[in-house]
Amino acid sequence: MNSTASRWSLRVLGLGYVFLLLLLPLGLIFYKTFEAGIAPPLEAITSPDGLQALKLTLITVAIAVPLNTVFGVLCALLLVRHRWKGNFLIDAVINLPFAISPVVIGLSLFLLYGKNGWLEPGLAEAGVKILFSTPGIILACIFVSLPFVVRETVPVLQEIGTEQEQAAETLGANAWQTFWRITLPAIRWGVAYGVVLTTARVLGEFGAVSVVSGNISGETQTLPLFVSKQYENFNLPGAFGASVLLALLALATLLAMNFLKRKEDA
Amino acid sequence: MEAGTVQAPSAPRAPRVGIRLPGVSAGLGRGIVVLYLSLLVLLPLAALAAKSVSLGLGHFWAQVTTPAAINALELTLVASLIVVIVNGFFGTVLAWILVRDEFPGKSIVNAVIDLPFALPTIVASLILIELWGKHSPLGIDISLSRTAVVVALMFVTLPFVVRAVQPLLMEMDREMEEAAASLGAGGFTIFRRVIFPNLLPGLAAGVALAFARALGEFGSVLLFAGGLADTQVSSIYIKQLIEQGNESGAAAVSMVLLAASLLVLLLVGLIQRWGSRHERSGGAGLTVMPMSGIEPQPEREEDERE
Questions:
Q1: What is the ipTM of this complex?
Q2: Fold of the CATH domain A48-265
Q3: Which of A144, A172, B5, B118 is the Cys-Cys partner for A250 at CB 3.0 to 4.6 Å?
């Protein structure tokens, strides 16, 4: 394993694989998008449908991510600090979204809220529309991105222990003060890491959203759905432009992950 | 706690203090968590399960054994198997060069490994079809074929094995290898007899997670491999059934897919328990990717000790 030959063959194998599978396709899309200048992709994204897709995506992130963050921290605190017989069940349910195909997640929401669904009569009476509109998309995104904050927070909580919290309490801090001044600062990088992963997942979710949204241009289209619709309609600048935008967000995600990992380790 | 008992790997155990959920008692917090999970996750899944058998078990069976359904399930299974074997190999190679080798740009390669986690799957599909499709600048067109299914799945599952093997490789004791070398073992023998057995728990967990992910993958396959009769993976088949209005059929096939991935995840849990037992002497337990995030839950082992 130490000879130069085997070292180089491993390098070529590994790096070649990453290059052909990840980097080359990604580079090519940037090249193709800006081949004719920045105008065509920009135009496509700033078209009414493009802007609507961007707006809907941002709304989804703005609702799904905070909800899952608050839930995630609460849930992690319970799992780590409060022994309870049902904890293993909670733990198992939290892992479910990892195990389920996005299309199946979309279908289960579709069946619950759709025609003849269990909740349909009540919702119709109340005049609330879930399927083929924004709430359905948000529900799908919450479902698929639910585990990340919990999973990232649990190990950090386990690591910090409770000594500082106990000290704070001994000194007369109440629960809120202890949480804001001791617990949260200690786990913030772990939580932030989870938030980054959650955001990336919500931004990019396609399968589940494609089942519940109906993919109506200019109405229930998120950016990933916009990409697929534009591609199917042979509007390549639109598909490429939106793809590059999402790819840039993905690269920003990688940078954030890197930064936070370093903070966590420090 | 007497020495030698099975113990949580890290984490000094919390004493039985009330938890600091600001303004929320443990009971209330638990209620919120259970309600959130029930409404958002369990209720939809219950609706799915109910729908799948709503027309009877015979209908369920008929729906999952149509030629198209069997084709789709078979393709999903075979493609996923091929993919995890390929990525098991390349993932180990990548983990190796990222830990044991030094080359310029290493930290960039290390960061880029997570790209498939961060990149929306539909974008993955699009960039793959642009490079390996009809308009391929390399002149290689594999789009709309079963090969494309495999390549798309290779793309999305690449990080799993790398991230599962990497930490084990980092923590591995170099002395064992040196000892083996001083006893006259060659490079390959050292790898096979010393290094590989140590990596096995991580490799197995990474492969299983990648497999679970591949089983359900949808977006990345969609544009690149398409929904042709012979390139249709299960998730695409399900989507098609939904569009045709065959909800009970879609639900039935979904239940089969769901059962398969749950089985795999169960396996991951067992592997991790096994892995963390092996690792106990070595310090930190097996850590698998942020995305997979299924931790061995040490708390459960030792119950009620106050």
A1: 0.93
A2: MetI-like fold (1.10.3720)
A3: B118
